[in-house]
Design brief:
heterodimer; A: 897 residues; alpha+beta; six-stranded mixed barrel; six-stranded mixed beta barrel; 23 strands; 15% strand; elongated; B: 98 residues; Arc Repressor Mutant, subunit A; three-stranded antiparallel sheet; 4 helices; 3 strands; 54% helix
Chain lengths: 897, 98
C-alpha cells in the first residue's frame, strides 16, 4: 500500500462515481430499448448495479492504511473536543507551552555550552596545562592555580613526550594606529604551538610560522574574521599589507575564520609571542597554556610527563636577581592538566545546571497541573466512558483516546513552546551572565529540537496516563454505580489529584526557597562596601601610551598628568585620577611578595603574594575609597620620585596590627637590592575581584617613580584606567568631551573600555543577578501554578460535594464551620507539600551553595518566610471555593440532581 | 480471471464486461454488476489492466479497460493453474471412471 494511493483516493472516488453513472446510463438505455418505461428502466438498472455507495466504500477502503486512518480520525475527534472546550484547551496549552518552551531554551544553552564539543577538530584531545603549588601561599588566592612561565613553556615544549603540540598564550590590549582613528584593540598573544594545537586552518593566507615566533624575524600578525570585516571591509588583498600595532609595523600573514577564538577570548588580532632564550628566567607565571594530547595519551600520563619535567625546568634557567631557585622546591609545584572544555566552561556549569534543574521542576509542575485539568475533564466524562465501555468499547480503545488527547496537547504545546524558546533564547543570551562562555555558539539545533519532541511526548504521556488508568481501567462498571445519586463519593477518588497537588506545592517550595536564598544573597552583596561610592557617577576609560610612541617614562607621566588636567577642566567633573586597574575591571593585575624593613625574603618561606597597583594622586578621593590613616600621594611625590607607598587596611593590620602603626614603616619587594619605601597612607579594603570575593591585600605604588625592583631605574604605568567623578557620567555628550580632551593632548591615543563603574559592578554581579532573575521567574510561575492546582482541587471537591453540603446545611451546619472544613482540607494538602518540600529543599539547595554569598544554604529566614508565604497562598486558594460552598442554597443543591 | 478473459478480445467498458461475463457463463454466474467495479479497481492497481475514457456504442461517455502485457501474462499463468486445479478436482471426484 503506497501513500500515493492514499492521497489519490479522493480523485479516484470521483472517477468511480462517474463510471457508475455511465454504467447506469447505458443500462437504462438498454432497458428502454427492451421496452421498459423510463423510470422502470432506471430502477432496474440500479437493481442490477447493486448498492453504489457500498461499492465506493469498498474501493475507498482498498486504498487506506488502517492505523493511520483511525489515528487521523481520533486526532480530528480530539481537536474537535478541544475546540468545544476553549478554556481548558488554552489553559492547558499555555501551561505546557511555557514549560516546554523554557526547557527547550535552557536545554539549548546547556547543550551548546556544556555538552557540545569545542569548535576545534578532535577537540577531545585538547587540554589546558597549569600547576598547583600548595607551598606557594598567597598565590592561589589570586589566580587559583599557577600558570606557566615562558621558561616552562620552552622546557615543556622541547622535552615533553605527551603532546602533539603545546603553546602558551595571553591577552593584551594594543593600539592600532594609521588606519582611521587610533583604536585600542584586543589582541591574543600566541606562542608557537597554539595554532597547531587548535588546528583550525586560516581562511586566507597562512598561520604564524615558527619563524614568526623567532626573535629578530620580521614582525607579523594575523587578523580575526571580525576585525578583517570591520576594518578592512573583507578586502581579499589584505594579506601582505602592513599595519602599525603598538607603534610597530607588522605584516598581515593571514585571516582566521569567523568562529575561531582562542578558548573564550574574542580578539581582533593574533600577535606572535617570541621568547629570547638568553633572557629567560624561571618566574613570570603569567601564561595560559593549550596542548593537544598525542593519540592514546591520557591526562594522567600527561601529568606524569610534566611532573618529570618540573625539576628539569628548575635546573635549566636562572632565577631573578640571585634568589635561591630552590624556593620553588618548597612551593611543591605539580602539574594540573584539565580538558580544555572544562577551562572554557569554568564555573558556568554550576549556574547552568541549577537553571536546568529549576526549569525542569517548573516543567513537572506544569505537567502536574495539566494532568489535574485532564483528571477533572475525564471525571466529568466518567459516565460517558462507562456507558461506552458497557456498550463494548474496548479498554484499549478508551485508553488510547485519553492518551491521544494528552499527546495532542503535548505536541501542540511543544510547537508553541518552540516559538517561546526561540524568543526566550534571545532573552537568555541578552540577559545572560556577562561572561557566559561560548555565548556565540548558542542556537536551537537538531539536539534541541529532538529534546523538545521528547519532552512534548513525555509530558503528554504523563498528563494522559493518570486519568487513563484511573478512569478507563477494568473497574469501570464501578463508575456507573457511584456516579448515580445512591452512593456518596468515596474519598479515594481524589487521591490522584491530592498527590498531584502535594507534589506541586512541594516543588514550588523548593523553587521559592532557592529564589529566596538568591534574594538574601543579593541583599548580602548589596550591603558589602565595595570600596568605592556612587558607582553610577564614576566614569572609567582606559588609555595606553606605548613605548614606541613616548619613550621616556617621565614624559608618559607628564602626558597622563596633562590628560587629568584637561579632563578636570570639563564642566561637571569634580575629580579625576588614574590607576593600573579599577576594582572588578578584570584586567590582569600584578602581584608579588613584599617584605618589611629588617627582613629578607629568602629566609624561611616565601612571603604571601600581594596585589600591586600603580595609582595617581587623588584616586581614592575620586573613587570614594576612605583614607584610614596617613595621607594620599601628590604630584610632588611622583615627580620627585620619593620612596613612598600606600597599603590597604587589611595588609596594615596583618603586618603591624593597626593602620596607624603602619605609617612611617618601610617595605620593599623581594629583590636583594630593592629600595625601601615608606608607608605614607592606609586606605579602606577594596573588593578588587568582585563583592563576593574577599578583599585582597593591596600595595599601591605611585604610577611614576623609582622602580620598586631595581635601584636607580625609573618606572611608569603605561596602561591605566582613568576614573572621572561627574554627575554627567555615561551621557553621550560627556563621552564626546572626554575624547576631545584626550585627543587634544595626543591625537593618536585610543580610548577604550569606556563605561561607568556601575556597569563594571553590575557585570561582576551578573552571575548572581542572572540566577536571581531566573529563579525568581521560575519560583513565581511555580507558586502560581501550585496555587491554581490547589484552588482547582478544592473547588472541584466543593462542586462534587454540593449535595452533601446541602444536606449538612439543611440539618443546621453553620456556614463558618463548613468554610473551615474546606480550608482545613486545603491546608492539610499544602502542609504535607510544605513538609516534603522543606526536606527536599534542604537537600537540593546544597547544590547551589557555590552561588550563594554570606548566607548558609539553610538560611533560617528563608526557610521560615517561604513556607509562610506558601501557606498564606494556600489559605487564600482554599478559602475562595470554601466560601462558595458555604453559600450553597440547600434547596437548590438537593433539587439539582 | 473472468474479467481478464473478457478483455482478451479487446478493450471494453464496465457495462460490456458485466454483461459479457453474465452471458459467457450462460447466466450461471448471476452477479450484482456493481461488485465488478471493486474488482476492476484492484486489477488496475496491480497493473494488470489499464483504463481510458472513451465513448460507448450509443454515444455515452464510458471508461474503457484493456489488458496490459503484464495482465496477459497473469491470465495465461492463472488459466494454466486453474485448469490444473480443475483436472485435479476432476480426478478426485471421478476416480472410478478409469
Amino acid at each position: 500500500m503506497s501513500w500515493r494511493r492514499v492521497l489519490r483516493r479522493a480523485s479516484w472516488d470521483r472517477e468511480r462515481l462517474e463510471e457508475i453513472d455511465s454504467y447506469l446510463a447505458i443500462e437504462t438505455d438498454e432497458n428502454i430499448a427492451r421496452g421498459m418505461s423510463d423510470s422502470e428502466a432506471r430502477a432496474s438498472a440500479r437493481r442490477k448495479l447493486g448498492n453504489s455507495t457500498l461499492i465506493r466504500e469498498e474501493i475507498y477502503r482498498m486504498n487506506t492504511i488502517a492505523i493511520v486512518e483511525t489515528l487521523g480520525r481520533d486526532v480530528r475527534h480530539v481537536l474537535r473536543m478541544l475546540r468545544h472546550n476553549p478554556t481548558f484547551a488554552v489553559v492547558a496549552l499555555l501551561t505546557l507551552a511555557i514549560g516546554i518552551g523554557g526547557n527547550t531554551a535552557v536545554f539549548s544553552v546547556v547543550n551548546s555550552v556544556l555538552l557540545k564539543p569545542l569548535p576545534y577538530p578532535k577537540a577531545e584531545e585538547l587540554v589546558a596545562v597549569a600547576h598547583t603549588a600548595p607551598g606557594f601561599s598567597g598565590l592561589s588566592s589570586i589566580y587559583g592555580d599557577l600558570r606557566l612561565s615562558a621558561s616552562m613553556f620552552v622546557t615543556y615544549s622541547e622535552h615533553n613526550r605527551a603532546f602533539q603540540a603545546l603553546g602558551v598564550w595571553s591577552t593584551a590590549t594594543m593600539s592600532v594606529t594609521g588606519l582611521a582613528e587610533p583604536e585600542q584593540i584586543r589582541a591574543v598573544l600566541v606562542s608557537d604551538g597554539i595554532l597547531r594545537a587548535l588546528d583550525v586552518p586560516p581562511i586566507m593566507g597562512r598561520w604564524l610560522s615558527q619563524a614568526d615566533h623567532t626573535p629578530g624575524s620580521p614582525a607579523t600578525v594575523m587578523l580575526s574574521y571580525g576585525y578583517w570585516q570591520r576594518r578592512f571591509g573583507a578586502d581579499r588583498s589584505v594579506v601582505g599589507r602592513k599595519i602599525t600595532v603598538d607603534s610597530r609595523l607588522r605584516e598581515i600573514v593571514g585571516v582566521m575564520p569567523q568562529a575561531f577564538r582562542v578558548v573564550n577570548t574574542d580578539s581582533d588580532l593574533f600577535v606572535p609571542l617570541s621568547f629570547e632564550r638568553s633572557r629567560l628566567i624561571l618566574p613570570g607565571f603569567s601564561y595560559q597554556s593549550i596542548a593537544r594530547l598525542k593519540p592514546g595519551v591520557t591526562i594522567a600520563k600527561a601529568e606524569a610527563d610534566i611532573a618529570r619535567l618540573v625539576p628539569v625546568w628548575m635546573n635549566s634557567w636562572p632565577m631573578l636577581g640571585g634568589i635561591d631557585p630552590r624556593v620553588y622546591e618548597r612551593a611543591r609545584i605539580a602539574p594540573a592538566i584539565r580538558p580544555l572544555k572544562k577551562e572554557v566552561v569554568g564555573n558556568a556549569a554550576d549556574i547552568l545546571w541549577v537553571l536546568m534543574g529549576t526549569i525542569g521542576i517548573v516543567m513537572v509542575i506544569a505537567a502536574a497541573n495539566v494532568a489535574n485539568l485532564m483528571l477533572v475533564r475525564t471525571e466529568a466524562r466518567q459516565q460517558e466512558l462507562a456507558v461506552r465501555a458497557a456498550l463494548g468499547a474496548g479498554w484499549g480503545r478508551l485508553v488510547r483516546e485519553l492518551l491521544l488527547e494528552s499527546l495532542v496537547l503535548g505536541v501542540i504545546g511543544g510547537a508553541l513552546g518552540l516559538g517561546l524558546a526561540h524568543a526566550g533564547l534571545r532573552f537568555l543570551v541578552a540577559a545572560g551572565p556577562g561572561r557566559l562562555p561560548r555565548l556565540n555558539e548558542i542556537a536551537l539545533d537538531g539536539w534541541a529540537l529532538g529534546f523538545t519532541v521528547a519532552v512534548s511526548l513525555l509530558s503528554g504521556l504523563m498528563c494522559g496516563l493518570i486519568p487513563a488508568f484511573k478512569y478507563a481501567g477494568p473497574s469501570i462498571s464501578m463508575a456507573l454505580r457511584s456516579a448515580g445519586r445512591a452512593l456518596s463519593h468515596s474519598r479515594d477518588r481524589h487521591r490522584a489529584r491530592n498527590v498531584l497537588v502535594v507534589a506541586q506545592v512541594a516543588l514550588a517550595l523548593v523553587l521559592l526557597v532557592s529564589a529566596g536564598l538568591m534574594i538574601r544573597t543579593f541583599q548580602a552583596l548589596a550591603k558589602v562596601d565595595a570600596g568605592f561610592t556612587e558607582a553610577n557617577q564614576l566614569q572609567v576609560m582606559r588609555i595606553s601610551i606605548p613605548g614606541l610612541l613616548v619613550r621616556e617614562p617621565e614624559r608618559v607621566a607628564r602626558m597622563q598628568n596633562e590628560i587629568v588636567d584637561k579632563v578636570a577642566a570639563i564642566p561637571g567633573v569634580s575629580s579625576v585620577a588614574f590607576t593600573s586597574g579599577m576594582p572588578m575591571e578584570g584586567f590582569a593585575t600584578n602581584w608579588d611578595a613584599i617584605t618589611v624593613e629588617g627582613k629578607t625574603c629568602t629566609e624561611a618561606e616565601i612571603p604571601p603574594m600581594r596585589v600591586f597597583k600603580s595609582i595617581s594622586p587623588r584616586l581614592f578621593q575620586t573613587a570614594g575609597t576612605r583614607l584610614i590613616a596617613g595621607r594620599d600621594f601628590n604630584w610632588t611625590d611622583l615627580y620627585g620620585r620619593r620612596p613612598v607607598v600606600m597599603i590597604s587596611e587589611n595588609l596594615a593590620r596583618e603586618l603591624w596590627s593597626s593602620p596607624s602603626a603602619a605609617i612611617g614603616r618601610r617595605i620593599a619587594t623581594c629583590l636583594p637590592k630593592a629600595p625601601l619605601r615608606e608607608v605614607i597612607g592606609v586606605v579602606q579594603d577594596v573588593h578588587d575581584n568582585g563583592v563576593h570575593e574577599p578583599s585582597p591585600a593591596i600595595v599601591y605604588w605611585p604610577s611614576f617613580g623609582e622602580s620598586s625592583y631595581i635601584p636607580g631605574e625609573v618606572d611608569v604605568a603605561r596602561t591605566v584606567t582613568f576614573a572621572i567623578r561627574s554627575h554627567l557620567a555615561g551621557s553621550d555628550g560627556f563621552l564626546q568631551q572626554l575624547n576631545q580632551a584626550v585627543w587634544s593632548v595626543n591625537a593618536s591615543l585610543p580610548v577604550a573600555s569606556v563605561r561607568t563603574m556601575q556597569d563594571v559592578y553590575d557585570q561582576s554581579q551578573s552571575r548572581t543577578s542572572f540566577t536571581l532573575v531566573m529563579l525568581g521567574i521560575a519560583g513565581t510561575v511555580a507558586l502560581v501554578l501550585g496555587v491554581i492546582g490547589l484552588y482547582g482541587v478544592i473547588s472541584y471537591v466543593v462542586s462534587q460535594r454540593r449535595r452533601e453540603i446541602g444536606i449538612r446545611l439543611a440539618l443546621g451546619a453553620q456556614h463558618g464551620e463548613l468554610e473551615r472544613m474546606f480550608v482545613r482540607y486545603g491546608l492539610s494538602l499544602a502542609g504535607i507539600g510544605v513538609a516534603i518540600g522543606l526536606a527536599a529543599a534542604a537537600g537540593l539547595t546544597r547544590l547551589m551553595s557555590s552561588l550563594l554569598f554570606g548566607i548558609s544554604p539553610l538560611d533560617p529566614l528563608t526557610y521560615v518566610a517561604v513556607p509562610v508565604v506558601l501557606v498564606a497562598a494556600a489559605v487564600l486558594a482554599s478559602y475562595l471555593p470554601a466560601r462558595r460552598a458555604a453559600l450553597v442554597d440547600p434547596v437548590d443543591a438537593l433539587k439539582a440532581e | 480471471m473472468l474479467v481478464l478473459q473478457t478483455l482478451v478480445l479487446g478493450p471494453a467498458h464496465g457495462h460490456t464486461i458485466a454483461h459479457a461475463i453474465e452471458r459467457g457463463s450462460e447466466d450461471v454466474l448471476q452477479i450484482e454488476h456493481g461488485s465488478l467495479y471493486p474488482a476492476l479497481h484492484r486489477l488496475e492497481n496491480r497493473g494488470w489492466i489499464a483504463s481510458f475514457w472513451g465513448t460507448s456504442e450509443n454515444n455515452r461517455k464510458a471508461k474503457y479497460y484493456r489488458l496490459t502485457p503484464v495482465g496477459r501474462k497473469q491470465l495465461l499463468a492463472q488459466t494454466t493453474r486453474w485448469e490444473q486445479l480443475v483436472r485435479a478436482i476432476g480426478r478426485i471426484l471421478k476416480p472410478a471412471v478409469e
